[in-house]
Amino acid sequence: MSAATPSSRALLDRLRQGWRSSPLPGFFAWWGGELGTLLPPRWRAALADGAGWHLLQQVDGDWRLRRVGQAEPLARWSDELDPVAQQAALAVAWQGTDPEDRRLALLLPAHAVLRRVLQLPVAARGKLHQVAGYEMDRQTPFGAAQVYYAVRELARPVVAGRCAVELLVVRRDMLDPLLARLRTLGITVDAVDLAHDAGRLGVDLLPPDQASHRTRPRRRLNLMLAAACVLLLLLAMGGWLHNRESALAQMQAQVEAMRGEAQQVAGLRKQLQDDAGAAGFLAQRKARRATVLGVLLDLTKRLPSSAWLERFSLDDNGQIGFQGQSPQAAKLLDLLKGSPLIDNANFQGSIQSDPSTGKERFYMVAQLHKPAPERAAPQPAAAGSTP
Which Pfam families does the annotation name (predicted)? Predict the structure, then answer.
């Protein structure tokens, strides 16, 4: 059990460090703030995390208690008073504060804490506390078993591949008597820190085995509300999905009905086409005329594989124009001779060399081949006529 406890604590430290270094805390803080503005003030006050930190500091034999961010103390009493009197002085300062929201940090004097700035590899970010324990003998005159220490990462420029951290060390023989004194007074602290401006530095030198364990009914209520929100979200998503499925089924029924109508229209169109037949002159002429795809297919077969077309046009008068590139554009005229679809192919403009491809750019015009007009069938000679 004793061997499993440090490993589980190291795992929790790595998970906590990874969570703090990710963008998720900032996102959830922003999201929670935006959702909180939508609630009534009374609900917001009931659901908010009202944990308020108070700072306890010993100055010239007197205890001083103040709120984070405030310079003036809420209470001041002598350490020579009996425990009952000191607890009474503390209770007066706690008035108006929910016991669940009370957080107390013991501030140590600056001279009692040794602070060192280290540069560690970036790979050590997930286990700063463990690495600092290995470096304790080198960076301080104490061993890891003689001190309590904390590590925090600093936001300052360093060389690539390394990160700046600060190691804060306090001797056990100095902190243990102070914590024992507070326990005899019935005062439980939640963290041991250093003063920073009107607040605290943000580290915790309190030994893990002396950390206070508080029951937080409000957190349980918040978790229940969060679970209810997730359940409502799932129900809303299920309702939305059901509505979409119903709408899809209705649309499928409409499509089936429209499909029947479309089949009727297709039958009427086919009947109209059958009635029209092939009697239209324009339809016959169009059937005899070469299509654009046919012309392109003929050009593809006749042009070499080293040539390509960039532009092609065919107007209603049968005028063909195409532009492209070929290693030897002048030879294209010979290749187009004898085409059953293209007549009178000629270059328009001069042939120019393209420096980017090393080929010759050309533009040619031609005329779509016109089939010979059909001869009228000979009329039978009239009876009694002479040749």
Answer: PilN
